[in-house]
Design goal:
6 domains, elongated, 679 residues, Formin-like protein, Formin_Homology, Methane Monooxygenase Hydroxylase, Chain G, domain 1, FH2_Formin, FH2_Formin_sf
């Protein structure tokens, strides 16, 4: 280590006297301390007074190769780049003596060597040249007491085996709880947000309404879309009306404000999907890199345990590796669950998960950010009071026009081919429900359900004969499984009892639920023989006479939502309204039944406890809108059924068709006695 040359011609120092090592200083070579002799005396005399520092590039308070007598010997500095020495000495004030630090490192004591201290220590580590100079000084027998405190620390750590590895293990051990939280915390938020998205009935209704608006806007130009991309939701705020200030999003928000105000709170604290905004910050690739860092730390601990041999430190390292391994295992399982749920949520929202590495690089941040931004747009539009008032007034006017048009259409009657609906007042055949659209007299083509037709040779109905029911039918037809026969002799079976269907020979044979209810795709039937649930979860049960005029129950259809809307648009000139959880609609395409555990109350599917409050013993309670205070008797039914003796029985128009002008609960008991028994 070289020292600067002495100042020209200047010798001596304050306080008089001189050291015995002037020749060494003058030559620019740091003297090697010796035991005894002049060098020892010089060091002893220097310790008694004040002094400066000696560094590889500078000697403080040292001129002409002499040290002042009566002052403390100058400190020798090797760590001179930046503020390393100062920062390390500040750390030592917190940690104690260098010996305390060595003990804490050897014992892997994170109570004394906290993560923040270790990071500061790592940031101020001397470089290789500085350590080499320090070690050369110590190897030459240099006095540790003459070193600065920073140098003394690394002089003490000089003989600590695998110092860098131990410091890294200490930092990993102290930071393990923080590292575990950095991985598990985001994953837990992501899983919660994804579960909320798939389980939110309000979000499903909001997206479904947005899809309906988009299809209505593109009607006549594009085919109806079955789904809407998350990235396209922002375009709702860009599609403007003629005034340039009202957007399609304002109309969407207005519709939701009328039908489901809770959908406008999505993403806010305390509402559905409240976890989405906080979970929209991470990608799986970022979380996987943190898991990889955790795995690298575990490998480091295991290598250190193998190098440490046996003893308490080895057992401590093994326990640390086991603890970190458990954290890694939990985080890996949580990551796998989050990836699976993200792919499921994308499919639920109508998108496909992209292949790797695109999926990990973008998701779930892209998906959750799109949803979060859509929520923010709806909140902003809802807060735009002036625009919302204009939109609500426009919607009210449009709705009044549609209702007036629908009423006029009902008065005229809808025609399908050569059949006209109000046949009872047009045909001379009693009990006729479908008649020719012209001619005099009007020919009849179909009888009410309680009647059986007697045909003319041209295919028209000559007369409608009241059917024979139950025991009389079985005697007249000779079929033990018959429920209803025509009024001719011999009698022909026109309906079978529950559990049986009619074959091509008009005989009653065993049949499945779909055959019995005459509803393809039916999974379960009501006691009255009507289908109550479609087998496919994405299908809605629709009575056949909502589509085909005067088809009586139990005929039904299991249709996709898009098909239901198309039929409603064709028949009623407007889309059907189906709240989330709806599985059946009535003849006017209004929801009439919700999925298991829910009742239809206020046009929403809610749990029985908050809905109709009917007990499980109430027959056909899924069609009840409200039960009495005791919960054992229905007092109001949904639109699909009529109330008969506390039970929601089949609506008369469902029995005979919507063309039945004389149908009412009272008339039904006269036309069809079985109606009062809960059909």
């Amino acid at each position: 280590m070289q020292l600067p040359p002495a100042a020209d011609g200047k010798e001596g120092a304050e306080g008089g006297g001189s050291t015995s090592s002037t020749s060494g200083a003058a030559s620019g070579v740091l003297p090697t301390p010796q035991r005894g002799g002049a060098a020892s005396e010089s060091a002893a005399s220097a310790d008694s007074g004040g002094g400066g520092d000696i560094s590889p590039g500078r000697v403080s308070a040292c001129r002409s190769g002499s040290l002042a007598l009566g002052r403390r010997a100058p400190l020798i500095r090797f760590f001179t780049s930046g503020r390393k020495a100062v920062n390390l000495e500040i750390l030592l004030r917190q940690l104690g003596s260098p010996a305390d630090v060595v003990q804490a490192v050897d014992e892997l004591d994170t109570r004394r060597l906290k993560v923040e201290v270790l990071r500061e220590l790592q940031a101020n580590m001397p470089d290789a040249a500085e350590l080499e100079a320090l070690h050369a000084y110590l190897d030459a027998g240099g006095d540790v007491r003459q070193l600065g405190r920073a140098e003394q620390l690394f002089a003490a750590l000089r003989h600590t085996a695998r110092l860098q590895q131990k410091l890294q293990v200490l930092q990993f051990k102290g930071g393990l709880p923080e590292r575990a939280a950095e991985v598990a915390g985001p994953l837990s938020r992501i899983v919660t947000a994804l579960d909320e998205l798939r389980g939110s009935s309000q979000l499903a209704l909001l997206l479904h309404t947005a899809l309906r608006l988009g299809n209505a806007l593109n009607a006549g130009r594009k085919a109806p879309q079955r789904g809407i991309r998350l990235g396209s939701l922002r375009k709702l705020a860009d599609t403007r009306s003629m005034d340039g200030s009202t957007t399609l999003l304002h109309y969407l928000v207005a519709l939701m404000a009328e039908s489901s105000p809770g959908a406008l709170l999505l993403g806010k604290p305390g509402s559905e999907c409240s976890a989405v905004p906080d979970a929209a910050h991470w990608t799986f690739a970022e979380l996987e890199s943190q898991l990889a860092a955790l795995s690298s730390g575990i490998d480091l601990v295991r290598r250190e345990a193998a190098a440490a041999g046996s003893g308490g430190i080895t057992r401590q390292l093994g326990a640390l590796a086991g603890q970190a391994g458990a954290v890694q295992q939990r985080a890996t399982a949580l990551l796998a669950a989050a990836r699976r749920k993200a792919a499921d949520t994308l499919r639920y929202l109508g998108e496909e998960a992209p292949p790797e590495p695109g999926f990990s690089a973008a998701e779930p941040r892209r998906m959750l950010s799109d949803v979060r931004d859509f929520f923010a747009l709806t909140h902003r539009a809802h807060a735009d009071g002036g625009r919302m008032a204009v939109v609500l007034a426009t919607l009210a006017a449009q709705r009044a026009e549609e209702e007036a048009a629908a009423e006029a259409a009902r008065d005229e009657g809808y025609g399908r081919g050569q059949i006209i609906v109000p046949a009872q007042r047009l045909s001379t055949v009693a009990g006729c429900v479908e008649a020719a659209i012209s001619g005099s007299p009007r020919k009849c083509y179909l009888c009410q359900r309680a009647f059986s037709p007697v045909w003319n040779s041209d295919g028209s109905v000559k007369r409608c004969v009241r059917t024979v029911n139950f025991a009389a039918c079985r005697r007249a037809s000779g079929d033990p499984n018959a429920a209803r026969c025509d009024g001719t002799t011999p009698s022909w079976v026109v309906a079978c009892k529950a559990g049986y269907v009619m074959n091509s020979s008009y005989k009653c044979v065993r049949g499945n639920v779909a055959q019995q209810s005459r509803t393809p795709g039916c999974a379960a039937a009501n006691p009255d023989g009507t289908c109550t649930r479609c087998a496919a979860a994405d299908r809605v049960l629709v009575p056949a006479n909502a589509i085909y005029v005067n088809v009586g129950m139990p005929d039904g259809r299991c249709l996709a939502w898009s098909q239901v809307h198309a039929e409603a648009r064709s028949v009623l000139r407007k889309y059907a309204y189906m709240p989330p959880g709806c599985i059946e609609v009535d003849t006017l395409f209004r929801c009439s039944q919700c999925r298991a555990g829910l009742s239809l109350t206020g046009a929403q599917c809610v749990p029985y406890s908050r809905g109709n409050k009917c007990r499980p013993t109430v027959r056909l309670r899924q069609y009840c809108a409200r039960c009495n205070a005791a919960g054992d008797r229905c007092v109001a039914c949904t639109g699909a059924r009529s109330l008969v003796d506390g039970v929601c029985s089949l609506h008369c128009k469902l029995l005979f068709g919507i063309g039945c002008l004389q149908c009412s609960p009272t008339a039904c008991t006269r036309i069809d006695p079985a109606y009062a028994n809960g059909r």
